[in-house]
Write a structure and sequence with these properties.
single chain, 181 residues, alpha+beta, eight-stranded mixed β-sheet, 35% strand
Length: 181
């Protein structure tokens, strides 16, 4: 799905533009994934688990062509600072009312209100796409994200013990959270 660009000011007064990811964003998105996955243990990938540029372009184009998926990027002065996605859960009719929400920002842009605005826009678009509930997984130690999700109306419904196993052999639990749209 294509999103009409949205412009807003973050808490520091910087102009932020939210828009659909385009194929020409593929290299920036790969760089972003490598950096953000190294910055925080809260994302699902290791830094070396990224797509090739061609795979990323194909992924972006599938999202643009899909009426039920969205990949949104946030930019400040033309620099990619984060992204947020809405994706359907499975292809079965019985799951057609559910979507998955994912978000991440470079650490230096966290706490400036960008993530909140991205999520609010993603939830609005998800509702417009016909989804009735938005779901996400969040690592149990990610207190800032959990606080934001709760402020936006997400409720914790369950815990996945040992949801992630890190390269050092340690584990992290995750919470499943859901919001009715």
């Amino acid at each position: 799905m294509r999103l009409e660009p949205v412009t807003f000011k973050d808490k520091l007064g910087r102009e932020v533009v939210l828009r659909s990811a385009e194929a020409e964003d593929a290299e920036d998105l790969i760089k972003y994934l490598k950096v953000t996955t190294a910055e925080t243990p809260f994302l699902i990938r290791e830094p070396d688990e990224v797509l090739t540029v061609e795979q990323e372009k194909s992924f972006i184009e599938r999202n643009l062509d899909s009426p039920r998926d969205l990949m949104m990027v946030a930019n400040i002065s033309g620099k990619h600072v984060g992204n947020c996605s809405v994706s359907g859960i499975g292809s079965f009719k019985r799951y057609a009312h559910r979507c998955d929400i994912a978000i991440a920002l470079y650490q230096e842009y966290c706490g400036a209100g960008i993530g909140r605005i991205m999520l609010e826009n993603a939830l609005m678009v998800a509702k417009e796409m016909g989804y009735e509930q938005a779901e996400l997984e969040v690592i149990a130690d990610n207190k800032n994200a959990i606080s934001l999700y709760e402020k936006l109306g997400f409720v914790r419904y369950g815990t996945f013990p040992d949801n992630m196993k890190y390269s050092d052999g340690s584990y992290a639990d995750a919470f499943w959270m859901m919001k009715k749209l």
